[in-house]
Amino acid sequence: MVAQYPCLYAAALAIRRSIPLSPRYTFLMARSAIAKEQDILKLPPPRRAPVLTSRRIGIHTSSAGGVQNAAERAWRLGCNTFQIFSSSPRQWAPYELGNAQCAEMSRLRDKYDLKPLVIHVNYLVNLASVTELFLKKSIEAFRGEVERALALCAEYLVLHPGSFRGADREAGLLRTAAAIAAATQRLDLAKANLTILIENTAGAEYSLGSSFEQVAEVLDRLRGLVPIAACIDTCHTHVAGYDIVSETRMTQTLKHLDETVGFKNVRVWHCNDAKAACGSKLDRHQHVGKGSIGLEPFRRLLNDPRLAHAAFIAETPIDEPGDDKRNVETLKKLVKK
Ligand SMILES: [Zn+2]
Ligand SMILES: [Zn+2]
Are 223 and 294 in contact (CB under 8 A)? Predict the structure, then answer.
């Protein structure tokens, strides 16, 4: 399949040559997000270890001050899994990442039993781009994401399949699959237990991955080339037009998901409520239980034995200090003992 895209092979080779063996990453940290919230690291540490459930539940956690700080924050927020960015989400330059930081991340994850570690790829990366230069830049940046995920011993790297503007959807899906294959050449993800997760999207114009079939197609094309599975976002699912609100319709939606992507391939659920209506294609996350999805679908997800292997991670807004902790607590309370 990749052989149809010799230009990508050439790009990947050129990129590989330009990547130093042990890269020093520029220090660049987005502080605006954390400035708005009350940083849990600035509060006294909890006196007792948080009460956990039988499910892996976490939240996207700030890496301010260094990625390793996210592990301490996640534990204090009551998580036993978490997600981070390893580069500024809307800038090309990655965060600084040294051996000491990676070692500290692993030490804290062991100490607090925080697993899996999920890394979300920078939003600028578009592996379906038809612009050759932008595609090259995206492949280079994505390879950096994979390298940092390997350095941090992350289990999962979540990627939006991209935008096919300027081409047709099918060609876009092929381009994304080929670009992932090209960007991961000669990196042994399987040995490091790192899996790339294709996330379903809200269905904005030209965006790939708003149907389970499209997610499944990327998975099918990469199977055997690179460890690949899926991340399903509840908000994206809902606004893309799948009904998960009524119990009967949710049963049908889940059946459809199992028949296309397969439950065993859904390793992470992004547990976000939605501000917009079902089918609106508007990607606006809301606090769990406070949006157009409501609490019950999350209760059904968290207690479905067929999904028990997955991690459930919120990417909810922080409107008031403590919203992050409250969303984690809301999810945990839904799990039946
Ligand atoms: Zn998501
Ligand atoms: Zn989203």
Answer: no
For position 337, what pLDDT does the model report? 75
The ligand with the least distance to the CA atom of 274 is 2
In degrees and rounded to multiples of 5, residue 297 shows phi and psi of: -60, -35
Q: Is the distance from CB of 80 to CB of 115 less than 8 angstroms?
A: yes
- Ligand 1 midpoint to CA 24 (Å): 29
Polymer length in residues for the chain: 337
Predicted TM-score (pTM) of the model is 0.88
The whole-number mean pLDDT for each consecutive block of 10 residues of the chain, a chain of 337 residues, reads 34 36 32 59 88 96 94 97 94 88 97 98 96 96 97 97 92 95 97 98 94 96 95 98 98 98 98 98 98 98 98 97 96 94
- Closest by CA position to 155, among listed 55, 82, 68: 82
Residue 231 φ then ψ, to 5°: -125, 125
Q: Ligand 2 centroid vs 335 CA: distance in angstroms?
A: 23
Ligand approaching nearest to the C-alpha of 270: 1
Q: Is 99 helix (H, G, I), strand (E, B) or coil?
A: helix
288/269 Cα distance (integer angstroms) = 13
Domains of the chain: 2-38+51-334 (3.20.20.150)
Q: In angstroms, what is the span from residue 220 Cα to ligand 2's centroid?
A: 24
